[in-house]
Amino acid sequence: MKKLEDADILAFVSNEKKKPEANSMNSHEADSENEGNRLNLSSSIPDSYCSPRIDDNLTECDVNEKVFSLGNPDKFNFEDFNDYGEGVSKVYSSSEAFGIVTTGIEPMEITPTDAVITGYITSARRNEIRLGTYVFVPYEDGEKLFAKVGKLQYRQEFVADDATEIHSMRTLSSRASPINEADYKFLACLDPLCILYLKSDGVLSRRMADRIPRPNTSILPITDKFDVQTGLNIPEKGIFLGHLSVGGELIKTNAEPETVAYYLRNDYRMGDPLIFRHMLICGSTGTGKTFLSKNILRQFMTEENTYLLRSSNKGKRNPCLVIMDPQDEYSQLFEDNETLNDKDKFSFESEKVNYGRIPVSYTHLTLPTIYSV
Predict the structure, then answer these.
(1) What are the Helicase HerA central domain coordinates in residue numbering (predicted)?
(2) Close Cβ partners of 102 (under 8 Å, ≥ 6 residues apart)
């Protein structure tokens, strides 16, 4: 009889232990084919979803009851999404943002007297950026950096010398292809004006720019009228002077009307109203000095607009207007504009703009007499 070595005994015992496992697996596969509603998912399903079988020590899951139903997707074990956690900045779409603030060109910094905040403007929004354009950069806690564009510049995306005769002649040729904006970096240097934040009572307020935004934060256009008025410290009411514009183009928001009215402070909260200050309107011929003057004067001459009298205790009085008009340019103050339509009137009334004739009782129009010598 052959003497068995220790290695042979161990191999024999190991083979004997593998046979029941193989038989059990084959039996389980046969049951799965016959029943049609059980699968061996122990390799991909967590143990918390599975129940062990006592007879063959195999872990299996009931597909219809434990995991999911192929005919009813509502039984998927998905958790509801509430919101991003704290410290996660909101991501704005590329069509909404002008671009992002970047540190790839130069470090981003802010000091009590200066700031260096550079933004990369995407090629699709470059035609909308102008010097003086107002933008805001959001912080992760809801505050906003209110800024304006102080400098614009192009930089090469790829190192190339385009200051050559061959390149210039090729570009000026009619056969030359148009410039590809993706070949250049379009950068906007932002000048911080203030930081917009909500007080404890929910009122929007402003403070000095004392923090910098995170890199790669979106640069967004100003679309809220109150953000513009608060950021520029423009009163929400007062004497209407005109509409805010940048480079001659009106700033438009999502409000109705979409323009931003510019008011002159006309109350006593910070001292005397600004009507008691000197004002100079200057410009070349035909730029609208008289037109602007007439509209400003019209805003003061209303029944509701009164001022305190310092010399007596008689309360308030309406202002009196005296106009020296040798060329009869201000006579339209006493006439109604018949060309105004309902849309114009709605816009004026929404922004508290006075229009039409002014009361004659408060106005004295003087035509000086010229004597010849």
Answers:
(1) 273-341
(2) 108, 118, 119, 120, 215, 216
Task: Report how far Cα 127 is from the mean position of its chain's Cα atoms.
Answer: 17
User: What's the rounded Cα separation, in Å, for the pair 330 and 338?
Assistant: 17
Q: How confident is the model at residue 7 (pLDDT cuts 50, 70, 90)?
A: low
The whole-angstrom distance between residue 363's C-alpha and the CA centroid of its chain comes to 46
Chain segment 78-93, per-residue pLDDT in tens: 556 555 555 444 555 5
Strands across the sheet containing 38-39: 38-39, 59-62, 51-52
Prediction pTM value = 0.64
| Paired tokens of 32 | 């799965």
Q: Pull the structure tokens for residue 49.
A: 């979803």
Q: By C-alpha distance, which of 352, 350, 245, 236 is closest to 299? A: 352
pLDDT single digits (tens) 8-18: 555 554 555 45
The C-alpha atoms of residue 209 and residue 174 are separated, in whole angstroms, by 49
Q: Where are the beta strands (DSSP E) in 106-225?
A: 109-110, 115-121, 134-138, 144-156, 184-198, 204-207, 218-221
Closest CA to 193 of 204, 203, 205, 208: 208
Q: What is the dihedral of CA 87, 220, 256, 291, to 10 degrees?
A: 140
104-108, 268-272, 279-283, 285-289: least confidently modelled range: 268-272
Summarize pLDDT for 239-272 with one digit per residue, the tens: 888 888 887 888 888 888 888 888 888 888 888 8
Enumerate domains of the chain plus CATH numbers.
6-71 (no CATH), 87-162+177-222 (2.40.30), 275-373 (no CATH)
